[in-house]
């Protein structure tokens, strides 16, 4: 176990040390102490290492993550694991706005609540939120899955493309071109896998599925008069 | 950007530390806005007198004979001065300032409020006004990254447009010019070109019409167009409101000893007992208010 203390090391030193690890590294377990809400902790990692952050973080924790598993024992600020490519990020507390934005792959787990714009423009990432999510979540979401065990705020899935959204609780309102869809066996199977990977024992059959009505994909000549 | 901090003390034993706690919180937010900074502190005077905070660009001249001209007690702190005025003389003193002392700007008036603000980083502003030494029941701080008006002392936050009221803002309002004209027609004048001052004047105007602070903030949700996280102070209270889109950050923390606000969690990390505080992000379009 390697320990890095942000009281004694600068953020740049800590991130440089984590980023220097490669596939052959012997140091696969890391702990970051005294994060105290600092920004951009454990960003740009590119190795199969485990990083535990012992406290709450600020903006952009775990951004651009590849391969690494990052676990935050606290809450995270805006933009947690923005543009993640692969790997896993687990937040034990709550997440602020645009969690998992533009993520291409990997799994983001938020054990508390996420606020607005969770999964905005997601491009393949899977996000599982144990609690609730705020408004405008999955806005323009392109692919991947957003799973919400609690309730969703207003305008869920506005202008959504081919991402899938699963919600167990209530949905305050659906955004433009987002509709409820049939839960078929393949969706239950996929949801079971995601819940299991996200350390969540919710029953997949209690969720409802939402996705794109595909009415905004192409210009509709009948609307020409409106422009 | 802009950075906001606020601290509302429930535990009176913390009151001597208000200034040092607020200063530490605000300095942590320096990189959210390096242009200018300000702090409003609420502390009652022992005599029950009113206080007027005035500011001058030329304090050596403007403050020299002020206590004799106005017949009031005056405490000069750098470019600011606190005038202690019996409550029945407040209107007269304000009128005298307006007529005979054009170099003075009234920053605030009320039983408890004092406002200190200047161009510069939070640390330099706090040092100039000895903010760490101030005690009080609650306070609000702001560090500004200017968007809607020039970087001047008067463009800095907090803005106070009514007795013991103040407002700080992260964001920008898009309908402030129209609202400024509307308020002027209704008799409420705004001193600067700043959008936030219009919001402060709007809330004061609503409260003069009979709203309490909560009702005034609720009304603001439909009348104020733009992006905002507001923190508001009154003689006894402390409120928070975010616009419905809520893209300007906000974190609240509450313990048995205090309620604290920060634009970011970083601002709160040195508060006593923060590890066990209830910490959450305020909901959009929801009024939060605490009072003594």
Q: How would you summarize the topology of this molecule?
A:
The complex is a heterodimer of chains A (227) and B (292).
Chain A: E1 2-5, H1 11-19, E2 29-33, E3 50-53, E4 69-72, E5 88-91, E6 107-110, E7 123-129, E8 143-148, E9 164-167, E10 178-181, H2 185-197, E11 208-212
Parallel strand pairs in A: 1-2, 2-3, 3-4, 4-5, 5-6, 6-7, 7-8, 8-9
Antiparallel strand pairs in A: 9-11, 10-11
Chain B: E1 3-9, H1 18-28, E2 36-42, E3 50-56, H2 59-62, H3 66-70, E4 73-77, E5 80-85, H4 90-100, E6 104-110, E7 113-119, H5 122-128, E8 138-144, E9 166-173, H6 176-185, H7 195-208, H8 213-223, E10 226-233, E11 237-242, E12 251-254, E13 258-262, E14 278-280, E15 288-291
Antiparallel strand pairs in B: 1-8, 1-13, 2-7, 2-8, 3-5, 3-6, 4-5, 9-10, 10-11, 11-15, 12-13, 12-14
Helix pairs in contact in B: 6-7, 7-8
Question: What's the short story on this structure?
Answer:
The complex is a heterodimer of chains A (227) and B (292). Chain A is mainly beta. In chain A, 10% of the residues lie in helices and 22% in strands.
Short descriptors:
heterodimer; A: 227 residues; mainly beta; Pectate Lyase C-like; 11-stranded mixed sheet; 2 helices; 10% helix; 22% strand; elongated; B: 292 residues; alpha+beta; Glutamine Phosphoribosylpyrophosphate, subunit 1, domain 1; Alpha-Beta Plaits; 2 domains; 7-stranded antiparallel sheet; 4-stranded antiparallel sheet; 31% strand; globular
């Amino acid at each position: 176990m390697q320990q890095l203390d942000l009281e004694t090391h600068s953020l740049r030193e800590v991130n440089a040390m984590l980023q220097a690890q490669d596939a052959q590294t012997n140091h696969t377990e890391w702990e970051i102490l005294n994060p105290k809400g600092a920004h951009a902790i454990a960003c740009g990692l590119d190795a199969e290492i485990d990083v535990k952050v012992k406290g709450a973080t600020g903006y952009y924790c775990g951004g651009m993550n590849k391969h690494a598993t990052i676990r935050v024992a606290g809450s995270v600020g805006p933009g947690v694991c923005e543009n993640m490519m692969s790997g896993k990020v687990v937040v034990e507390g709550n997440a602020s706005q645009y969690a998992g934005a533009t993520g291409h792959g990997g799994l983001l787990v938020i054990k508390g609540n996420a606020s607005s714009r969770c999964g905005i423009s997601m491009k393949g990432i899977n996000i599982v939120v144990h609690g609730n999510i705020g408004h405008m979540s999955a806005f323009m979401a392109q692919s991947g899955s957003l799973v919400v065990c609690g309730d969703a705020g207003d305008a869920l899935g506005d202008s959504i493309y081919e991402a899938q959204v699963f919600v167990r609780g209530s949905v305050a309102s659906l955004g433009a071109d987002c509709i409820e869809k049939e839960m078929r066996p393949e969706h239950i199977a996929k949801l079971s896998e995601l819940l299991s990977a996200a350390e969540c024992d919710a029953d997949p059959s209690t969720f409802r599925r939402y996705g794109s009505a595909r009415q905004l994909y192409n210009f509709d000549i009948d609307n020409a008069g409106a422009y | 950007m802009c950075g906001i901090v606020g601290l509302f003390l429930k535990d009176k034993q913390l009151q001597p530390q208000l200034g040092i706690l607020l200063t530490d919180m605000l300095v942590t937010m320096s990189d959210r806005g390096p242009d200018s900074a300000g702090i409003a502190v609420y502390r009652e005077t022992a005599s029950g007198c009113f206080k007027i905070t005035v500011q001058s660009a030329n304090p050596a001249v403007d403050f020299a004979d002020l206590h004799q001209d106005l017949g009031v007690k005056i405490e000069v702190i750098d470019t600011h001065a606190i005038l202690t005025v019996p409550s029945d003389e407040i209107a007269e003193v304000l009128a005298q300032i307006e007529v005979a002392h054009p170099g003075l700007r009234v920053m605030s008036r009320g039983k408890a409020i004092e406002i200190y603000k200047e161009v510069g980083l939070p640390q330099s502003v706090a040092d100039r006004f000895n903010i760490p030494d101030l005690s009080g029941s609650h306070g609000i701080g702001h560090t500004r990254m200017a968007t809607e008006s020039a970087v001047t002392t008067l463009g800095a936050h907090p803005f106070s447009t009514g007795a013991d009221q103040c407002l700080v803002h992260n964001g920008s309002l898009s309908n402030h010019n129209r609202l400024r004209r509307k308020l002027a027609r209704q008799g409420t004048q705004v001193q600067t070109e700043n959008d936030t001052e219009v919001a402060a004047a709007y809330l004061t105007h609503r409260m003069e019409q009979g709203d309490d602070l909560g009702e005034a903030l609720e009304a603001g949700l439909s009348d104020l167009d733009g992006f905002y996280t507001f923190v508001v102070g009154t003689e006894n209270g402390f409120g928070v409101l975010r616009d419905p889109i809520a893209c300007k950050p906000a974190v609240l923390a509450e313990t048995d000893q205090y309620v604290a606000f920060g634009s970011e969690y970083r601002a709160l990390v040195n508060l006593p007992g923060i590890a066990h505080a209830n910490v959450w992000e305020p909901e959009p379009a929801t009024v939060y208010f605490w009072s003594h």
